[in-house]
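TL;DR need structure tokens for one chain.
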Amino acid sequence: VDCAFWAVEKITGVKLVCRDYTVRSATLGRDAQGEATLEVEHQGQVYRGRGISTDTVEATIKALLNAVNRIELLQTGDDLGTAD
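>> reply
TL;DR here they are.
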């Protein structure tokens, strides 16, 4: 998981400090989905991310990218839901 944080920082150029990280089972059974939730700090502000996958590392990466997307959205002020 530490490598996932490092890789996302390196690829995106967004420096993150992990404040909270949790993985739990979101479904039951052999192909159970794991849900990763996290809080990261970037430039003094806290952002949350969430990811789901059968692979906990993949769920973590999805949660990290979810948080990075929130950071980018708030910093650029873009509204991704509108078309020009």
